[in-house]
Amino acid sequence: MKIQVMALAALMLAGCGTVQTVMRSDEVAVKSLKEQQSYCGAVPRIYSGVTYDFCYLNAPLEKGRDAGEHSPAPAVVLVDIVLSGALDTLMLPYTIYRQQADGSIIVN
Q1: Domain range holding 58?
Q2: Which of 37, 38, 67, 107 is 20 to 30 A off residue 31, Cα-Cα?
Q3: pTM, full prediction
Q4: In this structure, are residues 87 and 18 in contact, taking their beta carbons and an 8 Å threshold?
Q5: Nearest to 19 by CA among 54, 58, 49, 59
Q6: Mind giving me the DSSP string for 22-75?
Q7: How far is residue 8's CA from residue 14's CA, in Å, rounded to a whole number?
Q8: What is the mean pLDDT of residues 6-28?
Q9: What is the pLDDT of residues 35-52, one digit of tens each?
Q10: Is there a contact between 71 and 36 (Cβ–Cβ < 8 Å)?
């Protein structure tokens, strides 16, 4: 049971919006959002993990799925938004600097 919890925690952290946007290259976040076909054109670096998660939720539904159907994925993303919010707050000094130096992460 302990190994399963640790594996789940590692998977969630690997998919965390903050990890995707702050700790990895911009190209990784851009590629992921393009694959998801998100409507977001850019992700600001300040609170980028939360914004990334909202962009992920703002992607179109899969073809053939009814708009009334729900999958467990949005629930996981909502949990990730809370975790990303906490991590983004800790990363504020760095992300404010990066926003001033490099600007937003351009998706489209």
Answers
A1: 2-106
A2: 67
A3: 0.76
A4: yes
A5: 49
A6: IIS-HHHHHHHHHHTT---SEE-STTHHHHHHHHHHTSPPPTT--TT---SHHH
A7: 10
A8: 75
A9: 888 889 999 999 999 999
A10: no
What pLDDT was estimated at residue 8? 53
Q: Both tokens of residue 97?
A: 């600097």
Question: Rounded to whole angstroms, how far apart are CA atoms 102 and 98?
Answer: 5
pLDDT per position as a tens digit, 71-95: 566 677 778 888 899 999 999 999 9
Tell me how many domains the chain contains.
Answer: 1
CA distance 42 to 4: 35
Is residue 52 within 8 A of residue 16, CB to CB? The reply is no
For helices 73-90 and 92-102, give the axis angle rounded to 10 degrees.
90
**Residues 23/96, Cβ–Cβ less than 8 Å:** no
The angle subtended at Cα 100 by Cα 96 and Cα 101, nearest 5°, is 115
